[in-house]
Specification:
The chain is α+β, with helices and mostly antiparallel strands and about 500 residues long. Helices cover about 40% and strands about 15% of the residues. The chain contains 12 helices and 17 strands.
Length: about 500
């Protein structure tokens, strides 16, 4: 937890409600999101118990499994879930446009991408297990399953893998997004409770966040948001209902027991369903950050690529090879660095964290020479304006350190030496001023202007790392073992 977030939590306790820690929304919010509230059977890794799903807050669909340990019933549940999810995905996959690359080649790209919302990170983990458990089920031969089931498994696997990509908004846990925009007066662990988190952000009239969170943590008042259910509900209500279903002697009795289970599970997921749409409404009130659309454009591109591979029948790997795993890890590290930089450039509150750490500063221009020219090593004149910036931020900068102009990200400011003790910093500007002999209007800050410079940039982080081909990796990392020959066999000395 950062110092500013800790301070915001203290203010939340004093004020009785959550405090904003972001001025803009850093997550894309679709106009037609698909909300899923999954529940699983306690003690089972990927045994679905129920899911409430839909795009209309007033018309959800509830799917249940009266006996989650029954493989046939689980597969029937997954087939019904696929009938709801796959058409939603297909509507985006089929809405494409034809684009042309610089080399003249054409390709199909989706105009938009679907977005799935779940209550918490546990829901993402459960969907990942559920998808991986069925994506390779056989559709032919002995005990075949409908083609929609492994297809749903492939899509769930893609969504969950994409959710691990920093800045992605295709599969989003609501508690993670809310806690990234508001600081409550409780711990980060308690923020994982959706009802308690929303109790702090939007407490009922006449109630404080602490009081609302205390009521929300009572499972008799507000059931858990899943995927795990409350142990009291499991032992006292669900277990007898499932036992009654198992001991039912005819179809009518089983149908009656299944309806009772459905009513009990509906009471568990319906409050969370309402909380999900309440949280989405709160997020929709925030203005999206300037670079949210750029990240969503990457999501659309990733979705388009995977949708194309599904249509072409390209198989999905069971696991990543060593090279692809390293490449994915490097890609995520680079995306995380870029995501954190974009958040700071989009949001003054996020930039405060960097200012407090000394990696960025805000100041006032007290001196400027916009027409300064220096000679390069090749004896060519270079436009290099000078800024004198007075700042009260705790910045520690040495000669030749480089900063990026937040208002003009393509502009670099290099720290110049200053003799004696001064309350200002001298910067030499380069880039972002056009190609003429004079700086483009507005590209050099004016005298008296407030400026912000950061010690990091928004960039790709350099060219991608050069990794060996799979056949060139050792056998311990997926490559082929060396070919055996008699000459390679060691000779044992007697």
């Amino acid at each position: 937890m950062s110092a500013l977030t800790a301070l915001a939590r203290l203010h939340a306790v004093r004020a009785g409600r959550a405090q904003p820690i972001a001025d803009v929304r850093h997550t894309h919010l679709s106009d037609n999101p698909l909300v899923l509230v999954p529940l699983k059977l306690a003690g089972e890794a990927a045994a679905p118990l129920a899911v409430m799903v839909g795009t209309d807050p007033a018309a959800p669909t509830l799917l249940t499994v009266p006996q989650p340990r029954d493989r046939v019933l689980r597969l029937r549940f997954l087939a019904e879930l696929a009938e709801l999810v796959l058409p939603y995905l297909a509507a985006y996959a089929e809405n494409t446009e034809e684009l042309t690359t610089k080399s003249g080649e054409t390709y199909e790209r989706c105009l938009d991408a679907p977005q799935l919302w779940v209550p918490n990170s546990g829901g993402v983990g459960f969907l990942k297990l559920l998808g991986r458990s069925v994506r390779f089920h056989r559709t032919e031969g002995d005990n075949p399953v409908p083609e929609s089931i492994p297809l749903l498994g492939r899509w769930l696997t893609w969504f969950c893998d994409r959710a691990e990509h920093p800045g992605s908004s295709t599969l989003v846990p609501l508690t993670s997004v809310l806690s990234a925009h508001w600081a409550t007066g409780q711990s980060a662990l308690e923020d994982a409770n959706l009802a308690a988190l929303l109790g702090w952000i939007a407490p009922p009239p006449g109630s404080t966040g602490a009081e609302a969170a205390a009521r929300a943590e009572d499972p008799l008042s507000v059931p858990p948001a899943g995927p795990a259910t409350d142990p009291g509900f499991d032992n006292e209500e669900l277990a007898p209902l499932i036992a009654a279903y198992d001991t039912a002697e005819d179809d009518e009795a089983k149908s009656l027991a299944a309806r009772r289970i459905e009513r009990a599970l509906h009471a568990q997921v319906e409050p969370t369903w309402q909380l999900m749409w309440q949280g989405l409404a709160l997020l929709r009130e925030l203005t999206a950050g300037a670079r949210v659309d750029r990240r969503w454009n990457e999501d659309v591109g990733s979705f388009s690529y995977f949708a194309g591979s599904v249509a072409e029948g390209v198989p999905q790997a069971r696991r990543d090879s060593a090279v692809s795993a390293v490449r994915k890890l490097l890609d995520r590290e680079r995306a995380l660095e870029k995501y954190e930089a974009e958040k700071a450039f989009d949001d003054p509150r996020a930039m405060l964290e960097h200012r407090l750490a000394g990696t960025a500063f805000v100041g006032t221009v007290i001196g400027v020479d916009p027409a300064r020219v220096v000679m390069s090593e090749k004896n060519r004149p270079l436009l290099r304006p000078i800024l004198q910036v007075r700042t009260a931020d705790p910045i520690v900068a040495t000669e030749s350190d480089e900063f990026c102009n937040v208002d003009n990200p393509t502009q670099t400011a290099t720290v110049l030496p200053v003799e004696g003790d001064h309350d200002y910093i001298v910067l030499e500007l380069s880039g972002g001023m056009g190609t003429g002999k004079a700086a483009r209007p507005g590209s050099v800050p004016d005298l008296g202007a407030t400026v912000c410079f950061a010690g990091f940039k928004i960039g790709s982080g350099g060219p991608p790392a050069k990794l060996p081909a799979r056949e060139d990796t050792p056998w311990t990392h997926g490559g082929p073992p060396p070919e055996w020959t008699p000459e390679s066999e060691p000779i044992e000395e007697l």
